[in-house]
Amino acid sequence: MNAARWFSLAVLLGGLAGCGNGNDVSDLDAYMNEVRLRPPGKIEPVPTFRSYESFTYNAASLRSPFSPQVRVGLAGRKPGARNVKPDPNRVRQYLEGFNIEQFEMVGTISNASGAFALLRGAGGVHRLKVGDYLGRNDGRIVAISDSQVDVVEIVPDGEGAWLERPRTIPLKEHS
After folding, report:
1. InterPro entries from the xrefs (predicted)?
2. Domain-located, residue 35
């Protein structure tokens, strides 16, 4: 026999030797007698649990409390235009489901079909062209340069009209 079998046999015999005297079951007999003396039919009721009340977060479409507020002075404030408004019938693009603050420009690509901006955010790097939409406020890309992407958003002015708000996404270097 090889050494591994001798070792296995020694462990098995050592384990069996630990079982000791197999006739001493007095503690088990005492417990069984105690159980037999209990009155029959006494089963504890199942505990009642409160049902889980779900919570629906309704503020996902609002401005993030960590981004700076847009401050517009009341004296120099332009009223919103009635002819500027988002198109409710337009098919939404994927990147319109995310806040525009989370996107950062990481580069550009140019080919025969035009210039494209590379924006990181929403779980990846996305290639966008002029006319594409991103952000929750109907943000449309109006210009792409080597150093920035210019976006125009349509936001409510609080008085029933809409304003066009320009935004710039600068190139993030060393990304």
Report:
1. PilP
2. no
